[in-house]
Amino acid sequence: MTRKPKLMLFSHISHSQSITGAEKLLLRFCQEMSPYFRCVLVVPSEGLISWLARKNGIRVKVQSYELLHTIYTPYEGLRHEADRLMHTPSSHAVIHLLQKESPQIVLTNTCVNAVPAMAARMLNIPVIWKITETITMNAYTAESIKIIDEFSNWVIGISQTVFEPLQGGNISAKSTVLSPTWDDSFAAIHQWNDLRATRRSMMGLSPEHFCIGYISTFIYDAKGLLPFVRSALSLCELHPHSRFWIIGNPVDEVYYNQCVRMIAESGYRHQFIFTPFLEQVSEAYCAMDLTVVPSMVKEGFGMTALESLYFGTPVVAFGQGGLQEMMEAVGNSHLLAEPGSVEELASRMAVCIQNPEETARTGERSKLAAEQRYGTEAYKTRAEEMIRNLMSRFPDWFNTPSARIRTHGKKRKPARSKKKILHQRKKKSTSARLRKTVKKSKNTMKIKPMKKNKRKQTRSAMKPLKSQKKRKMTS
């Protein structure tokens, strides 16, 4: 049987205490590709993603190297920086790793993760570049496009928004939109009520409290905590039963402290709850009545919003980027605010607070729409379509007939030749058992006659003695 081709997937980060949206997307993609490839996940260090990968039976290699951060915010010296990067010892280590592992395909995750793509193309290994963010549009964006185009055979974007800046070169002719899905490990629906009651009890929330959540793995200015706090403070007096839950780990301490100080000086500190990032985010989404995603940049997608909708918790967000694309796809455009507008964000939040029953119904409708568009089955279908497309365009990558690659569709009946092979094996094993039985029976037959003959010989030898004894008695 032909072996599956080896696919090496490079993660640009690997945090030990938490996992970002980009890491979640890569891990899920890796799991989805396992039926088609022998997947090897490469991480810059040990972390939560490497632990989860091994838990799911995925082989992991650790190799650190530098990132090309300025490809996300391009500038005049971008190409020079990319060339310099390939002459560093860590980049040489990546090249050595690829030479040692000899993968058929390399996949690099996020636009800043350029080293694996450049190293693979130097070794004539095909590259799939997975873009999860929207590159900044400026006078030098064309330089980013050139690098991605030059060092990729195929490009995957997680939304149409991701491809908006990538309109130059040949990228549009070699690309696929593969929208994300949620994590299979999230709590099942029968657990939600218990999780909600437990977490809200821990925070001192009664059924009458309306909980509005802000959640981000890492908190810095682009994640919009400041407009969230300002919007929340404007609602505290009119809605004293509202509670604002901030979840995440601060990266920019100055920015985070500014938000905390604003809350402390407002007189409404009792209406705010602060929690470090939760590994079990199911508890957070279950406890919330509304999730706010006030991102200040054009996100590639919006995993926080999608995860919230999985639990039937409605979302208010700034209307831009992949987040707006996703919200409109599930019929929630009425919950989008003008990007950066504190007043509009507060207005959308106020409508939800004032109409909790309708807000809950909106969450249920959004959940159904998200299931159809972004659920696990929809994701599997899109992934399978992409694989079929790649197999037809790049058959050398797979080096195996398409029928040999397992798909998520209807299982095919075994080929006739395979049935014959199984029959021959069964026949062979049966014959072996028969030969063993016959051999055993032959050995048994050899022994029995010997015992019988021996007894006969003993009796014949004794007969003359009996006759002689009889004659003696007669005489």
What does this structure look like?
- With 475 residues, the protein is an alpha/beta fold.
- It is built from 18 helices and 13 strands.
- Residues 400-415 and 437-475 have low confidence and may be disordered.
- A 7-stranded parallel sheet has the order 3-2-1-4-5-6-7. A 6-stranded parallel sheet has the order 10-9-8-11-12-13, with helices on both faces.
- 40% of the residues are buried.
Indicate the CATH class of the largest domain.
Alpha Beta
Shape: globular
Helix content range = 40-55%
Number of DSSP helical runs:
18
Tell me the distance between the termini: 91 Å
Organism: Paenibacillus gallinarum
Family: Belongs to the glycosyltransferase group 1 family. Glycosyltransferase 4 subfamily.
Biased composition (Basic residues): 405-458, 466-475
Keywords: Glycosyltransferase, Transferase
In short:
The chain has 475 residues and is α/β, with parallel strands linked by helices. Helices cover 50% and strands 14% of the residues.
Write the layout of secondary structure elements.
Blueprint: E1 6-10, H1 21-33, E2 38-43, H2 48-55, E3 59-62, H3 78-85, H4 89-101, E4 105-109, H5 115-122, E5 127-131, H6 141-150, E6 154-157, H7 160-163, E7 175-177, H8 192-202, E8 210-219, H9 225-236, E9 242-250, H10 253-264, E10 272-275, H11 281-287, E11 290-293, H12 303-310, E12 315-318, H13 321-329, E13 336-337, H14 342-354, H15 356-374, H16 376-393, H17 395-398, H18 416-474
Parallel strand pairs: 1-2, 1-4, 2-3, 4-5, 5-6, 6-7, 8-9, 8-11, 9-10, 11-12, 12-13
Helix pairs in contact: 4-5, 8-11, 9-10, 9-14, 15-16
